[in-house]
Amino acid sequence: MTTSGISRRGALRMFGIGALGAVGAGVLGACAPSGAGSPSNGGDPKSKDFDFTSWSLNEEAAKPSIEKIIAAWEKAEKSTIRAVSYPYNEYLSQLTLKLGGGETTGAVHLDIAWLAAMAQMGKLVDLGSVAGKGGYTDVALKSGTYDGKQYGLPWNTGSIGVIANSQLLEKAGIKEHPTTVEEFESALRELKGLGGGIVPYAAATKVAQLKDIFPWMQTFGCAMLDGEKVTIGDDASVDAVTWYKKLHDEKLIAADVDRFDARALFGQGKAAFYDDAIIGKGVTSAQSKDKTLADAMQPMERPVLKAGDTPQALLWGGVIAIVKGKGQDAATEFALHTTTDRATTSEYFAARALPPSTTAGLAAPEVAKDTFTTEWTRKITSTATGSPFWQFAQNAQIEEAVAKQVQAVLVGKSKPKDAMKQAGEEAAALIKR
Q1: Is the dihedral of CA 163, 397, 84, 87 positive or negative?
Q2: DSSP state string for 212-254
Q3: For residues 355 and 376, what is the distance between their CA atoms, to the nearest angstrom?
Q4: What is the Cα–Cα distance from 297 to 273, expressed in whole angstroms?
Q5: Contact yes or no for 81/362 (Cβ under 8 A)
Q6: CA 92 to CA 110: how far, in whole Å?
Q7: pLDDT surpassing 90 at residue 19
Q8: Residues contacting 410, CB < 8 A, separation 6+
Q9: How big is the CA angle at 122 (ends 119 and 125), to the nearest 5 degrees?
Q10: What is the bridge-based pairing of β-strands 199-202 and 271-277?
Q11: pLDDT tens digits for 91-106?
């Protein structure tokens, strides 16, 4: 394995692809990385040597596990993989620039929220014929599709859902997880009655994380997008935000909370519910002084408006996409192996607690014995869906526009109906850009 040295250039360069908007807010301040590399749209597709680009190679906790996968592949296939990495917060802007300039080849690790923006650049391989060999779960396969084509092989498939603290629920006399919004409200009031500074539900209330309102909007019946029409502003979205405001006013949720605050509150035993990705158990319990917390953390289906409704959750995870050009065939086989080989996925799970994307991988004893993961997959990921706004280059701006309007409601600067009307109009205008 060879690792490229990545530095930062002093100025952005336009590549004539119209994709800079895909990076969302902040891209105009990003710089393109330098570093050697062959043009991605030339070279021999049959070459055994290729690049593998991943933000995880820039992370101390993740890097050793991925380097081990790469080293094993290089030894078995007698090939050389050049590892490329950028920090997560800069990754999409850097990758967009590199891919647009023809400087990225081989396999590329993508957050599923970025897949559409990358696919729209026209430089990724359609992996439909390969994906059928993998034994991926249905929900995992969907995470790698855009516009009816399979552009990504799912590596790790999870979701963002609700985590409950069974210790606090027991103290409040709550014997079962609430399954409806009405039951959830009642549970929150019982928890508030415990006193001691308890925040019953550490829901997101800061703009940076207020996109967490989307699954609640869907719970109340708002599709958010119907074809090309933004539906935020309909009665269902207004009802959802009105309900959220009620929780805020009754101090069942707290002001100025983001994911980090929620984890801290939960870790201190001051919150009974909060929203997080499946990795939240490991992150939050590791930060907590309470060494029994991990055993008390339980995945909970998001309450529904009425019995029989489908619980809502946001799909979360990563895929491996393949760039057309040099080494694409070998990179495709590497991606298939990395995401489906049972020994590889089990070892990766043991190191990082990221659930595999295949039926066989999830059934492996090393994974199946982790009850939190298996319950999360069954209760939450099984019905999770991607955001309908991921397909648009302006996704980040849309999320921020809606979040600002929701926060305006929470602080009393706007009425739910007016705010959602404004949010819907702003989202529609952003899509038309």
Answers
A1: negative
A2: GHHHHHHHTT--SEETTEE-TTSHHHHHHHHHHHHHHHTTSS-
A3: 10
A4: 9
A5: no
A6: 9
A7: no
A8: 205, 244, 245, 248, 255
A9: 75
A10: parallel
A11: 999 999 999 999 999 9
Question: What is the percent of the chain with per-residue pLDDT over 70, rounded to a whole number?
Answer: 90
Listed residue (152, 151, 158, 264) closest to 202, CA to CA: 264
3-state DSSP assignment of residue 45: coil
Amino acid found at 184: F
Query: pLDDT for 343-379, tens place per residue?
Result: 999 999 999 999 999 999 999 999 999 999 999 999 9
**What count of residues does the chain have?**
433
Give the pTM.
0.87
Residue 53's nearest CA partner among 114, 133, 138 is 114
Q: Which structure tokens are listed for 258?
A: 């983001």
Place of tokens 């929220």: 113
Q: Which residues make Cβ contacts (< 8 Å) with residue 283, sequence separation at least 6? A: 263, 276
